[in-house]
Amino acid sequence: MVPRLSRREAPTRPRVEGDREQEILDAALAVLVDVGYDRLTMDAVATRAKASKATLYRRWEGKAALVTDALVSQKSAPEVPADTGSLRGDLLAMFCGHGGLTDEHQTAILGSVVTAIGRDPEFAAAFRERFIAPKVAVARKVYQRAQDRGELRDDIDLDILTAALPGIVLHRGFLLGDPPTPDLIARVVDQVILPAATRG
Questions:
Q1: Is 152 in a helix, a strand, or coil?
Q2: 20: Cβ contacts below 8 Å, ≥ 6 apart
Q3: Where in the chain is the DNA-binding region found (predicted)?
Q4: Has this prediction a pTM greater than 0.90?
Q5: What domains, with CATH codes, occur in the chain?
Q6: Which residues pair with 198 in a beta bridge?
Q7: Taking all residues of the chain, what is their mean pLDDT, rounded to a whole number?
Q8: What is the pLDDT of residue 109?
C-alpha cells in the first residue's frame, strides 16, 4: 500500500509561467476581443488556451487579474518617444502607428473593456493603475518636454492637456463612428491642442 503524503509533504502544484503563461494571456486577449469583458469567463479562456480552469486559478484569482495581466503583457512598458523638436511632431509620432490611437487592435481591446470600467471596480482600479497610468505618464512627459522647450503657455494645466487628444479622438471613434486616422489626429493637434496650449 502506498503511504499517503502528509499536507506538509504533499508536492506543490507548479505555477504557470514562461511561454505557457503567455499563451494563456494571448488566449485571454483573443476571447476579450471576441466577446468583451462582461461575457469573458475563465472557462472560455481555458478552452481557448487548451488548459484547465484549475491551471488558470493557480495563477490568477479571477478574470480581473487575468485580463489586466493580458493587457499589460502585450508589449514592454511605454517609452517617451524620441524628441522630434516640436510638440506637433512628438504627438504625431506617439499617437499614430503601432500602439497608438490608430492601432486598430488597441482600440478594439479598449472598446471591449470600456463597459467593465463602470461595472467592475476591481478591474477598473487595476486597469487604470497598470494599463492607463503608464500611458498617461508618458504623454505627460511629452507635454512637459514641450513646456521646457518654451512651446507651451506657463499657465497650462498639463493633466487636462494630456487627456485632451485621446479624449477627443476616442469620443469620435466610439460615440460618433469616426475611426481614428492619422489625418484625424493631425487635425485635432492642429486645430485644438496647439492653439489652446502653445504661446500665441
A1: strand
A2: 51
A3: 41-60
A4: no
A5: 18-72 (1.10.10.60), 87-197 (1.10.357.10)
A6: 152
A7: 88
A8: 86
DSSP annotation string for 77-93: PP-PPP--SSHHHHHHH
Q: Can you tell me whether residue 198 is helix, strand or coil?
A: strand
Residue 162 · residue 80 · CB < 8 Å: no
CA distance 145 to 200: 18
DSSP state of 10: S
- 14: confidence class by pLDDT, cuts 50, 70, 90: very low
Sign of CA dihedral 153, 158, 162, 163: negative
Q: Which residues pair with 152 in a beta bridge?
A: 198
In this structure, the number of other CB atoms found within 10 A of the CB of residue 166 comes to 20
Q: Between the CA of residue 20 and those of 45, 61, 85, 99, 172, what are the distances in Å? A: 13, 17, 43, 24, 38
Residue 176 has pLDDT above 80, yes or no: yes
- List Cβ<8 Å contacts ≥24 apart for 9-13: 13/58
pLDDT in tens, 142-159: 999 999 999 999 999 999
State how far the Cα of 101 lies from the Cα of 85, in Å rounded to an integer.
21
Q: Which residue has the cell 480581473?
A: 64
What is the average per-residue pLDDT within 99-107? Answer: 87
State which H helix or E strand residue 159 sits in.
Answer: helix 158-174
- Give me the sign of the Cα torsion angle 145, 95, 99, 60: positive
